[in-house]
Amino acid sequence: QVRLVEFGGGLVQPGGSLRLSCAASGNIFSFNTMGWYHQAPGKQRELVATITSGGRTNYADSVKGRFTISRDNAKNTVNLQMNGLKPEDTAVYYCNLQEELGSRGYWGRGTQVTVSS
């Protein structure tokens, strides 16, 4: 019922910045937590950052101070501002929406972020 589409991935040099965006469409319930997860080859998908419907944020320790997650409920979008990128940030980044009052969860198809000189 919900479709998520990510934008903004690409190639960036170490120390550079990228801004990822995710647009949600469909039958979106108001109380939902949106977030970003990443997955590198050979590794499990891991949480990067989440933001609740009320605006409470949570970050992986590895990105604290470098990444900022935000959302626009009116536009049904979630963003991830990524600063001070490191090679170890290289991964596919997936957008996620999880209903807070139900069991439904949705994933985008992912966008590649590559940090390399």
Give the structure's gist in a few sentences.
About 0% of the residues lie in helices and about 55% in strands.
Write the layout of secondary structure elements.
Elements: E1 2-7, E2 10-12, E3 18-26, E4 32-39, E5 46-51, E6 57-59, E7 67-72, E8 77-82, E9 91-99, E10 105-107, E11 111-115
Parallel strand pairs: 2-11
Antiparallel strand pairs: 1-3, 3-8, 4-5, 4-9, 5-6, 7-8, 9-10, 9-11
Task: Give your account of this protein's structure.
This protein has strands at 2-7, 10-12, 18-26, 32-39, 46-51, 57-59, 67-72, 77-82, 91-99, 105-107, 111-115. The chain is an all-beta fold. Strands 2, 4, 5, 6, 9, 10 and 11 form a 7-stranded mixed β-sheet that branches. Strand 7 (67-72) and strand 8 (77-82) form a beta hairpin. The protein is globular, with a radius of gyration of 14 Å. The termini are far apart. The model has no long low-confidence stretch (mean pLDDT 97).
List descriptors:
117 residues, mainly beta, 7-stranded mixed β-sheet, 4-stranded antiparallel β-sheet, 11 strands, 0% helix
Based on Cα principal axes, name the global outline. Answer: globular
Terminal Cα span: 40 Å
The helicity comes to under 10%
Any idea what the radius of gyration is? 14 Å
Helix and strand element order:
EEEEEEEEEEE
Overall pLDDT level:
97
Query: Treating each run of at least 4 consecutive H or I residues as one helix, how many helices?
Result: 0
Main β-sheet: number of strands, strand sense, barrel status?
7 strands, mixed
Portion of residues in beta strands equals over 45%
Please state the structural category. Answer: mainly beta
What's the number of extended β-strand segments?
11
Poorly predicted sequence stretches spanning 5 or more consecutive residues: none
